[in-house]
Specification:
single chain, about 500 residues, alpha/beta, Rossmann fold, GMP Synthetase, Chain A, domain 3, 3 domains, about 35% helix, binds xanthosine-5'-monophosphate
Length: about 500
């Protein structure tokens, strides 16, 4: 799809969020590095993001200003973007006395154009250490903060700068500001998932022809949407499902059945024994992950002989990460070692990444428009190394059985009481410590189970969920009564940070 709004990334922490907000408003936006300005094509408007540097620093990121002007479209500079535009228009920027971070008030000087429909005063979110100190002649101040300092400028028609972040929810009327700016763009909004899907299917048909496409599936959202999309594009898809035996209760069968329901036969490679053998006696967390990752890749390539095309479920954030880190390897989702084979195929132009322009929530919307059932699109995240990171220490068949049974009871109860869709991720893990209990007349020494339910936005931070005691009590009783080998159940009330979501 042709880019409508080019967001130029000066390294700000909210750059991706600007793109998401603009897309939510119906315009197809993408992020570009300043050096790639000439690759944006013919956008309908340009946004310059914030950034951590100071425009007055030597080697601070710059923009090809004459080229930007030659596009003849509205431009909005946010924070760093505003300071850079102020310099380019002949003004000055100097350091603030103190770094300004957090809430402030916006008082619009005029309530039309960029600030149409705004309140007399509303909260905005600031994060900057430089400020515009001299305004070029002819600059209009569109808004001030509570101290009368200009926080919004217009240098000339269509060229705006704001010293706050409209993309974060802490700027209460930020979305309105973005919408007002976008209304000045040279095109109406036209990003909606159905047309995106149709364009993508047409592109895939052309690109793939009658070649076979191999892809890995796990039952997770991205790989499921990928496989269904390829099928819908009429491709000869060969979805490979490596069943490493570290899945949840009945999960392997369910994945096969779910795909079958959608008319897709997946190839399940049952390699449980090999994984258990490879993990025997290993209790060091990183070594466990490394062994699982390596064997997973080995099994995948043993199965996928004679690859014509390989499809990967790379998402837009992975692409952005690889563009900013300069490494293609960070785009390879699987494991960080053993990427040579994929890089080789990439060089030959035989890797396709149909979801590479989409954010996760857009992948779900695409999945919905492909009629993928809700339960598949809204599954809780599940780690690649599976239950291995929920059984600290050595992995044994018996420990896996315990954690699987306990997890199934917990998840069933969450569903039954309407909590599954209200938490971001939930699971049971095994604490491999024997503590004393009583069973019948005997003292027992058995494991503990830890239940965890969190809310999170992006997995970087997480908070535990206040589940009802009755739900926890019912779950604990069921686990203690029906899962041999467990005599205690804990509920994990740690936030991330300092804890993580998984146990290992
Ligand atoms: P942590 O434990 O780091 O987990 O707070 C954050 C999120 O990432 C998932 N996770 C993984 N996903 N491979 C994955 O595909 C992994 O090795 C892995 N480790 C953790 C975890 O389930 C949580 O959603």
């Amino acid at each position: 799809m042709q880019v409508q709004i080019a967001v130029i990334d000066f390294g700000g922490q909210y750059s991706q969020l600007i793109v998401r907000r603009v897309r939510e408003l119906g315009y197809f936006a993408k992020l570009f590095l300043p050096k790639d300005l000439r690759e944006v094509g013919r956008p309908a408007a340009v946004i310059l993001s914030g950034g951590p540097r100071s425009v007055s620093e030597e080697s601070a990121p710059d923009i090809d200003f004459p080229y930007l002007e030659s596009l003849e479209v509205p431009v909005l500079g946010i924070c760093y973007g505003m300071q850079l535009l102020n310099l380019k228009h002949g003004g000055q920027v100097s350091p603030c006395h103190s770094r300004e971070y957090g809430p402030a008030q916006l008082r619009p000087c005029e309530k039309n154009g960029l600030f149409a429909g705004l309140s007399e005063s509303s909260q905005i979110w600031m994060s900057h250490s430089d400020t515009v100190s001299h305004l070029p002649e002819g600059t209009a101040v569109l808004g001030e903060n509570q101290e009368g300092v200009p926080v919004a400028l217009r240098w000339r028609e269509g060229w705006f700068g704001i010293q706050f972040h409209p993309e974060v929810t802490h700027s209460h009327e930020g979305t309105q500001v973005l919408q007002n700016f976008l209304a000045m763009a040279k095109e109406p909004p036209r990003f909606e998932i159905q047309s995106f899907r149709d364009e993508m299917i047409a592109d895939l048909k052309e690109r793939i022809g009658d070649r076979e496409v191999i892809c890995g599936v796990s039952g997770g959202v991205d790989s499921t949407v990928l496989a269904v999309l390829l099928k819908r594009a009429g491709a000869k898809v060969r979805p490979i499902f490596v069943d490493h035996g570290l899945l949840r209760k009945d999960e392997g069968d369910e994945v096969v059945a779910n795909f079958r329901e959608m008319g897709i036969e997946i190839e399940r490679v049952n390699v449980r024994e090999r994984f258990l053998d490879r993990l025997a006696g290993i209790d060091e967390p990183e070594e466990k992950r490394r062994r699982i990752g390596d064997l997973f890749i080995d099994v995948f390539w043993e199965t996928a002989q004679n690859v014509q095309l390989l499809a990967q479920g790379t998402l837009y954030p992975d692409v952005i990460e690889s563009a900013t880190s300069g490494s293609d390897a960070s785009r390879i989702k699987t494991h960080h070692n053993r990427v040579d084979r994929i890089l080789e195929l990439q060089k030959e132009g035989r890797v396709i990444e149909p979801l590479a322009e989409l954010f996760k929530d857009e992948v779900r919307a695409l999945g919905k428009s492909l009629d993928i059932p809700h339960r598949m699109l809204y599954r809780h995240p599940f780690p690649g190394p599976g239950l291995a990171v929920r059984v600290p220490g050595e992995i044994t068949e018996d420990r896996l059985r315990i954690v699987r049974e306990a997890d199934a009871i917990f998840i069933d109860n969450l569903r039954k009481h309407g909590w599954y869709d209200r938490v971001w991720q939930a699971y049971a893990a095994l604490i491999p410590v024997n503590t004393v209990g009583v069973k019948g007349d005997e003292r027992s020494y058995e494991y503990a189970i830890s239940l965890r339910a969190v809310i999170s936005e992006d997995a970087m931070t997480a908070d535990w969920v206040e589940l009802p005691y009755s739900l926890l009590g019912e779950t604990s009783n069921a686990i203690l009564n029906s899962v041999p080998g467990v005599n205690r159940v804990f509920y994990d009330i740690s936030t991330k940070p300092p804890a993580s979501i998984e146990l290992e």
